[in-house]
């Protein structure tokens, strides 16, 4: 019995994902077909179709897992300690200074090696 229930559930999952794909395709084709219509109406229609497709996708196991992942990611982002403006500016200036110094060093090495090769080759 359990195998039958799982097969039936997986069939419904497949139908839900198929409906999501059909809704997205209707949005893309409809947007192209009604290209002469005002943009506002097309955007409203696309947002409605996207909301319906997202709702259907969230009814599936993978959609729920994705929603949980997004929710957990938002919680982790809130835990991040972002640098202050002064720290960001100082770090940026340090990086720019190191890049400039390394550029000068590499330019000097390139010039020196080019000069040595020209002495050897003639």
From TrEMBL:
It is found in: Membrane. Pfam families: SecE. Keywords: Cell membrane, Membrane, Protein transport, Translocation, Transmembrane, Transmembrane helix, Transport. The keyword Transmembrane helix applies. The chain crosses the membrane at residues 14-34, 40-70, 91-109. InterPro entries: SecE_bac, SecE_sf, Translocase_SecE/Sec61-g. Its main location: membrane. The keyword Transmembrane helix applies. Belongs to the SecE/SEC61-gamma family. Essential subunit of the Sec protein translocation channel SecYEG. Clamps together the 2 halves of SecY. May contact the channel plug during translocation. PANTHER family: PROTEIN TRANSLOCASE SUBUNIT SECE (PTHR33910:SF1). Component of the Sec protein translocase complex. Heterotrimer consisting of SecY, SecE and SecG subunits. The heterotrimers can form oligomers, although 1 heterotrimer is thought to be able to translocate proteins. Interacts with the ribosome. Interacts with SecDF, and other proteins may be involved. Interacts with SecA. HAMAP family: SecE (MF_00422). This is Protein translocase subunit SecE.
